[in-house]
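I had to read the description of the data format several times before I understood it. For illustration, here is how one protein appears when written out as sequence plus structure tokens:
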Amino acid sequence: MSDNINNNSANGDNLAHNEEMDEALGNVLNTDDSAHGNEVLSEGNEEELVKLQAELDEMKDKHLRMIAEFDNFRRRTAKERVELTQTAGKEIIQSLLVVLDDMGRAEKQIEKAADINAMKEGMLLVFNKLRTVLHSKGLKPMEAVNEEFNADLHEAITEIPAPNEKMKGKVIDMVEPGYYLNDKLIRHAKVVVGN
């Protein structure tokens, strides 16, 4: 019987101890159903939570502003790119208008010209003016005749027997000239190569 009393006494002590532990744990842990997790409900932690929430809101605001700024930048650059492609040739076309004007005057003179030498001279002036304008815009013709054939620069139209041993593998004739624009190849030269 004393064992039963000791067991009951021990169980009572354990029960009292468990109740004390539950109460202490309830004070330390968040047992409020409206709050999430096992957060401690104290003044310091609430202030920290408010501070963290403010920082989170600030970061969200910065993030949204950055996204909006990038979106505006993307739209602005797309618009500028479209405008640039629409007006890219404007400067060149404007500079070629003077040549077109000269060609129009030459065309009128051809209709009533009797002197062929004067006509030739006028046409040469117009062609030289065209070359000068294009050269000023960065266009440069490629020198290909008597040069080694280079597949990066030349497009072989045909091969013919070389007139001498030195001309084998070299460009003998140029059917269509190649051009550079500001030192960048824009058209390959169509050439005849000696074999």
